Amino acid sequence: MNYSGLYHFDVLNGLGFRVSLFISGCDRQPKCRDCQNPKAWCHDFGETFTEATKEEIKRTLKHSSVRGLSLLGGEPSDNLADGVLLSFLQEIREEFPQKDIWAWSGYVFEELLNDPLKKEFLSYLDVLVDGEFIPELKNLNRPFGNSTNQRVLDVPKSLATKQAVLFEMEN
């Protein structure tokens, strides 16, 4: 697995300070129009995700001020077959149970549920921002999902009910 960016103490991609990992590779066809990161469509773009990368992320997650990990892309859920991302998420869950994990996907929750690997991916998440960004539906007053078709979902509740449940933002 490769990644195109790694940001420590990020405040744009989820609630609070976060580690944001932009994973390379997107298999969606057609691609999302006006994708914010088209260079990351190629699975080989960027740097190889190594043990050193894992440890760098974990060092930042140890800070009490860091709330969690955010996964963006590319398309994180198109990078599961080699097992690297899933095993990393399992490690994060075990070592940092108090930290939350967010992900952004151009797919919708219901599509992800239909694929066994993507459903396993969902099982590690707390919040999913689903659906492709559509410029005509742009609304920058919406936190995290910036077009009105995108949903910010509470993944554990959504998995329990097998239907999309919106995440309730904190005041």
Write structural notes for this entry.
The structure is a single chain. The protein has helices at 51-61, 84-95, 109-113, 116-123, 155-161; strands spanning 2-10, 17-23, 47-48, 66-73, 100-105, 127-130, 151-154. It has a seven-stranded mixed beta sheet with strand order 3-1-2-4-5-6-7. The protein is of the alpha/beta class and 171 residues long. It has one domain. The relative contact order is 0.15.
What is the structure about, briefly put?
The protein has 171 residues and is an alpha/beta fold. Helix content is 25%, strand content 23%. The protein has one domain (2-161).
**For the report, how would you describe the main beta sheet?**
7 strands, mixed
Number of strand segments: 7
The domain tally reads 1
Helix content: 25-40%
The secondary-structure class comes to alpha/beta
Q: In order across it, which strands form the biggest sheet? A: 3-1-2-4-5-6-7
Q: Please, how many helices?
A: 5
Q: Give the termini distance in whole angstroms.
A: 36 Å
What does the radius of gyration come to? 15 Å
Average residue-wise pLDDT: 95
Order of helices and strands: EEEHEHEHHEEH
Spans where pLDDT lies below 50 across 5 or more residues: none
Could you tell me the strand content as a percent range? 15-25%
What is the approximate shape? globular
